Input
Amino acid sequence: MSVPASMVSSTASATRITNAPLSLGGVTLRNRLVSAPMERNYCEPNGHMNDVYQEYLLERARAGVALIMTEATYVRADGKGRTHQLGAHDDSCIPGLRRLADALHAEGALVGCELNHGGRTAQTAVSGLPNIAPSPVACEVAGGQVPREMTADEARELAAEYGRAAARCVEAGIDVLSIHAAHGYLIHQFMSPISNHRTDEFGDPVAFLNLVIDEVRAAAPTVTLGMRVSVVEGPDDGLDAETTLAIIERAHLNKLDFLDISAGSYEAGEWIVQSGEWKPGVLADYALRYRKFGLPLGLAGRLNSPEIIEQVLTDGVAEFVSLARALHADPLFATACLADAAEPVRYRPCIACNVCIDNLGDGPVGCTVNPAVGRGRVPVATPTVRPGTSVIVAGAGPAGLTAARELAQAGADVTIVDRGSRIGGNMELAAQMKSTPDFHRFLDWSEEENERLGIRVELGTTLTSEDVAEADPSAVVLATGGEPTPVSIPVAQGAEVMTVQQWLDRVPRVFPSACTVWGSDAVAMQIADYLADRGVEVLVVGADAQIAPESGRRAKILAVPRLEQNPHVRIRLSSTIAAVELGRVLVTGPGGEQDWLDAAGPVLLSQGVQPRVLSHLLPGVTAPVVGAGTLVMTAPATVRNSILSGYDVAQELAATLR
Ligand SMILES: Cc1cc2nc3c(=O)[nH]c(=O)nc-3n(C[C@H](O)[C@H](O)[C@H](O)COP(=O)(O)O)c2cc1C
Ligand code: SF4
Output
């Protein structure tokens, strides 16, 4: 199917490669933007597409994306890895895929499926079926179930299932198919020495892959067919760049129309969904080595701005870009990439927090900065408020900023007050940490949104009841943060004990030669990592049995090993501090045993926050007062939960102000 050139944004700049159509196999993409395959856990439990998911994808198509690659789509029921994953495993999946294809075509976009089987990562607890793999090697990260080694006949039969699934997709009107040979799923398992210990014909790392390519091509002779590749597997004993290239060299590439460059495996998730610490376009150099195969290339991996996208396309690294998180955070990202430089389009940037991928096993995939997605419903706009509505939002952290924006969009006249000298609250501090550098993007965007929506921001101001009486607003949103959890221990004279925030607020920030971090939450992890990175000797003492239990695996995938492997960092978990003296702290261990540890420098507290009592905060105020963020939250104090809280509170408040 070819998309008419007239469907390309009218403001598109003719000179930009991003906007240029691309022929791929038998289809033409209207531009170079592809929504990367991204499991979202939005389907029905039987693998069928549904209205909520279709609407989500349509929104990205309407924003200008050329090709929507849906997600890793299981070709057989025992290859299903998520409860609500998309399936193409039987004919009952065809009508839903057909409806999706028709709807996306009507918006001028093409649609694709990524053919997949989970192999050893597909756990019985999810699929309800035994799991099978090249060899009986468990994937601990996926759940640890030891798979049964499939016979050679079973391998051949399973390869044929890829072909049958491909035929169903084609029957449903799917334009593009991609064979998932990456990320530690079944085909990659056959390729890898970690998971393939076979001595039969399938011991050859390319054998199963080639069988799948042959089956799919035979079943779908004219479809545009590509393959996703992990340019490195990740673990030391896995496939490196050279060995992967050598395998791909022997693949039946003559039957393919493109390669989609990605990286990583379950054991090296940081390569699949990269941390904010890694540079944008981190896989570009690897992609260049695939140019020799002469196939059009797609590139994924932190392509998070229109500029970097145009750059990799101009540099000839790839013909199209596969975008996952940037489009999840905001479909308008596509519009921004296609817009004329003279009329830039503002989009809500992904902050690379990786909450989305961390949530994948738990339910519908949400997004920290986009609180409307992953809620199991088609997003509903915040109700328009009646003319003359005014709202004061106290607190310019993520909850307050979000509430203010929603209410201003709904038509309210909004003023934000904050006692700090900058917007952002603790998120501004988090943006200074090593593993969350992109957090500043949310704050920059919020600042621009405040301006666009005419939100007044009064910094260095603490809201009082008198201020409220004088302003006489329609409502007040309090988002000034929770109460730091109090600690009560003997502290010797001269010993310094303060919260992490207090230390970070110090001007100038002088780094001690050593310090103690008392806490094991994400803030403790971040500050320990930040200080250790600057050569500070760090002692971490925390009550939890693991570091940052409230964070998902990917959110801490680099920081925790870095701390654990740093000889200048000591970590005492399931422990607490019973007393602080100059140069030492008394630590109580898991069994109640106590010992004094050398601990020069300050003790920085990260003990979390508790909700405050809302009714105590603005006595005498008659306007409705609602709380948002950690001030009222009982959920863990994460940015994601704060933004969700601000969003939900604003929607509920707006509904009362109509
Ligand atoms: C929640 C989530 C689910 C993903 N699911 C898939 C998938 O189904 N198939 C796949 O090949 N890659 C998947 N990926 C990887 C993305 O396609 C992409 O390669 C990766 O996120 C890096 O690109 P980005 O920086 O644009 O997010 C997923 C990523 C995320 C964040
Ligand atoms: S959850 Fe975080 S990483 Fe994922 S898309 Fe949203 S902002 Fe980006």
Summary: The chain has three domains: 5-352, 390-484+610-656, 497-607.
